[in-house]
Write a structure and sequence with these properties.
This protein is mainly alpha-helical and about 120 residues long. Helix content is about 65%, strand content about 5%. The longest helix is centred in the middle third of the chain and has 13 residues.
Length: about 120
Amino acid sequence: MALLDTNMILRYLLDDNQEMADVVEEYLDARNASVTTEVIAEVVYVLKGVYSMERNLISSVVNDFLKLVSCRESDILNIALDTYANHNLDFVDCVLYGYHVAKGATIATFDKKLQKLLRIRQ
């Protein structure tokens, strides 16, 4: 199983370099691709910060991509992406919220927005 890095995922999602996108497609077609939470976090930050994509679009395209790869924490990432689309939180805070929802993790934070979301969930 190959772990895809941020650049490979971006080339596939943005389809801005056909040769590179085709290489990623080969991994996907072979069902030989895996991603980590950390890489997805970087993908989200690049799509927002560099490409100025809207949160809803980022959530949608990354969620669709996650259906094509293996990911140990896809449940957490799905919650995080949905939260990111619907709340004004940094993506890493959304991942923490995903751990809270999916795994029952207690989140210790000083972040007021995240604290508010955690209180709503209780």
